[in-house]
Amino acid sequence: MKKVRCRRCDALISFDETAYPEGRVLIFRCPDCGKEFKVKLVPKAVGDAPVVGTLTVVENTFHERQTISLRMGENVIGRYVKGSHANASFRTLDPSVDTTHCIVDVREDRKGKLRFVLRDAPSNTGTFYQDEILKDVDRIYMENGAIITIGATTLIANIP
Ligand SMILES: [Zn+2]
């Protein structure tokens, strides 16, 4: 079961998300206040999948140290804003970090080994892997301990 919060009165509404296809927009009516609102079901590629790695967001003048969870599927990394499409966002005031900045696609290769594949979203200021800027076509196999730079922000990969 999943819970959503009414945007008007804050009441919690439970529903069985498995009854609906992923990516589907559902319309709910709040049982308390009657307000209708839409909820989009996030593909479970990320949402409920187990955490298989993390990114450490190094503290700077724009934010405190944080940890971003990486799950199987596409992890969209960016500056958190309300209603963000980035499912792996973090809280920062860094204006050079886009709300959708880069993507880490976690998948299994043919031998069953996890691969963490980094690409630029594309972003306005670019994504750097070990100080090299990614071209739009680049797909980088990340290594443990690698440094990713987005805007003025440094991320460190903690992956198997
Ligand atoms: Zn309500």
CATH topology of the largest domain, by name, is Tumour Suppressor Smad4
Order of helices and strands: EEEEEEEEEEEEEEE
Radius of gyration: 18 Å
> What ligand molecules are bound, each kind once?
zinc ion
Q: What general outline do the C-alpha atoms trace?
A: globular
Overall mean pLDDT stands at 90
Number of helices: 0
Strand content: over 45%
Main beta sheet: 6 strands, antiparallel
Domains (count): 2
Number of strands: 15
Query: Structural class from helices and strands?
Result: mainly beta
Helix content: under 10%
Could you state the oligomeric state of the chains shown? Answer: single chain
**How far do the termini sit from each other?**
31 Å
CATH level-two architecture of the largest domain: Sandwich
Low-confidence stretches: none
- Lateral arrangement of strands in the main beta sheet: 6-5-15-14-11-12
Q: What's the CATH class label of the largest domain? A: Mainly Beta
List keywords for this structure.
single chain, 160 residues, mainly beta, Tumour Suppressor Smad4, six-stranded antiparallel beta sheet, five-stranded mixed beta sheet, 0% helix, globular, binds zinc ion
What's this entry about, in short?
With 160 residues, the chain is mainly β. It folds into 2 domains: 2-40, no CATH class; 51-158, Sandwich (Tumour Suppressor Smad4). Helix content is 0%, strand content 45%.
Question: What does this protein look like?
Answer:
With 160 residues, the chain is mainly beta. It has two domains: 2-40, no CATH class; 51-158, Tumour Suppressor Smad4 (Sandwich). It is built from no helices and 15 strands. The strands form four sheets. Strands 6-5-15-14-11-12 form a six-stranded antiparallel β-sheet, with no helix packed on it. A hairpin with an 8-residue loop joins strand 5 and strand 6. The chain is globular. The model has no long low-confidence stretch (mean pLDDT 90). Zinc ion binds next to loops.
